[in-house]
Design goal:
By secondary structure, this protein is an alpha/beta fold. It has a single domain, classed as Alkaline Phosphatase, subunit A (3-Layer(aba) Sandwich), CATH 3.40.720. The protein is built from 14 helices and 16 strands. The strands form five sheets. The protein has an eight-stranded mixed beta sheet with strand order 6-5-7-1-8-11-4-12, sandwiched between helices. A two-stranded antiparallel sheet has the order 2-3. Strand 2 and strand 3 form a beta hairpin. Helix 9 packs antiparallel against helix 10 and helix 12 packs parallel to helix 13. The longest helix has 25 residues. The protein is globular, with a radius of gyration of 24 Å. The protein starts with a helix and ends in a 15-residue tail after the last strand.
């Protein structure tokens, strides 16, 4: 007699069932490691591959493409070239977006903002960044980043997953998979999107686990009474009721696992248990009442507004304090195709103080040495004006050939400016840095050999850096 099990026993199920059968004796130990309130959540055996400089990473992602020449890459010589045509030799036949492809003129638009040197290192920053300028000796600015995509979606996907097409695991998922978490009551990977920041849409796949098991995807925290969706119990349902419910549900899921050997069943069990523990840990985490007044003053008045960029920066510090491996903050609105001087000033007002405060806060708590902080977007902006150029206003189109980011803490050498662009901030002139190089460096600082952290999928061993990636040793301490 043919059973439903026989009908559904595919080749994939057969091998997973066989592997499960051979390893069934270890299942209880595996579940105990994942489900019991033991310290931390283990990663892969043998990872980290060597002594790490950083234990955790906070990625401050500025979605939309901040203008490098208005913030981190001064080009004072362009003031004498305002309104002149960008030489064809500089543009070099670059593919343009649909927003400027029809332009017949590409006039040079120098920045209207002044730059000054700061700190003992003398790094140069725009007047729009007085707070980041105050940590000049703590950060390494990379001026020679470049990417392969000129449009937002594939460029952001590339920065987050190492590939331009959707479907690969995100950086945080790779870290969660390889290193696990130091916390038993919070996920290894948390994402927050600034409340009220508008701009290009952001998709959950940007922090998804791709072909990795689903337990490694990020948990998204939101502002408001319910920071994590579907975490709260319904009225009249006690914590003891929840515990009994999960035990019964787990028993049913394990029976299902015994029959089918589907590894996603294990992930489901683990995620239910993590949600149970988060019911107790998240309210304490998100209650800012314990923070002293001087901390709010350091992060700025917006830090009192749940869901703001400043509040999320403060919450990121609280998360990594409690053992979360990777925290990513997404702040939208850097896509300035018109009225850039006004718009970029507004974005800096929202982010400058809190970004710098996060570095200072970690430093004061003795956590900066083993916490890596990354600030940057998916690409830069063009030196030529999109639309009408006036004496005090201009727009800039997307520009993948060069842009600026910065790193701090976690084994990074502060006070360093790495790489350079040409006189127009249009092409990389010295020490080009690819997205794969950045990812390789982040992994290296966390003790991971980017060539060894792999996952076999559809017959091939994949990794975050694909077949590329060089470590940026000149920026390492």
């Amino acid at each position: 007699m043919t059973t439903e099990f026989d009908l559904e026993l595919t080749r994939r199920h057969f091998f997973s069932r066989t592997a499960g059968g051979l390893g069934i004796a270890a299942l209880s130990n595996l579940l105990a490691r994942d489900l019991d309130a033991a310290p931390g959540q283990a990663g892969l055996p043998g990872v980290p591959h060597f002594a790490p400089r950083a234990k955790r990473v906070i990625y401050l992602f500025q979605s939309g493409g901040p203008s490098q020449m208005d913030l981190y890459d001064p080009k004072p010589g362009l003031r004498d070239r305002q309104g002149t045509e960008l030489p064809d030799s500089i543009r070099g036949g670059q593919r343009l977006t649909g927003m400027t492809a029809a332009q017949t003129s590409f006039p040079v638009a120098p920045s209207t903002f002044s730059f000054a040197r700061h700190g003992a290192s003398g790094q140069e920053f725009s007047e729009l960044l007085p707070h980041i300028a105050s940590i000049a000796d703590k950060i390494a600015v990379i001026r020679s980043m470049h990417t392969e995509q000129i449009n937002h979606d594939p460029a952001i996907t590339f920065l987050q997953t190492g590939h331009q097409l959707a479907g690969r695991p995100s950086l945080g998922s790779w870290l969660s998979y390889g290193l696990g978490s130091e916390s038993s009551s919070l996920p290894a990977f948390v994402v927050m999107v600034s409340l009220g920041s508008s701009g290009q849409p952001l998709y959950s796949r940007l922090w998804g686990s791709g072909f990795l098991p689903t337990r490694y995807q990020a948990v998204k925290f939101r502002a408001g009474r319910e920071p994590v969706l579907y975490l709260n119990d319904p009225d009249g349902f006690s914590r003891d009721d929840r515990r009994h419910y999960l035990e019964d549900l787990s028993a049913l899921n394990r029976l299902h696992w015994d029959e089918y050997g589907d590894p996603e069943i294990e992930n489901r069990i683990a995620q239910y248990e993590m949600a149970y523990r988060m019911q107790a840990s998240v309210p304490e985490l998100t209650d800012m009442a314990s923070e002293p007044e001087h901390v709010f003053e350091m992060y700025g008045e917006d830090s009192r507004k749940p869901g703001s960029y400043a509040s999320n920066c403060l919450l990121a510090r609280r998360l990594v304090e409690r053992g979360v491996r990777c925290v990513q903050l997404f702040h939208r609105g850097w896509d300035h195709h018109s009225r850039l001087p006004m718009n970029v000033a507004n974005k800096c007002a929202q982010t400058d103080q809190a970004s710098a405060a996060l570095i200072k806060d970690l430093d004061q708590r003795g956590m900066l040495d083993d916490t890596l902080v990354v600030w940057g977007g998916e690409f830069g902006r063009t030196v030529y004006c999109q639309g009408k150029l006036t004496a005090d206003s201009y727009g800039r189109d997307h520009h993948p050939r060069c842009f600026s980011i910065w790193l701090a803490g976690g084994g990074v050498q502060g006070g360093v400016t790495y790489g350079a662009t040409d006189d127009y901030s249009y092409n990389v002139a010295e020490n080009p840095v690819s997205v794969h190089d950045l990812h390789a460096t982040i992994l290296h600082l966390l003790g991971v050999d980017h060539k060894k952290l792999t996952f076999k999928y559809q017959g091939r061993h994949f990794r975050l850096t694909d077949v590329h990636g060089e470590i940026l040793r000149p920026v390492l301490a």
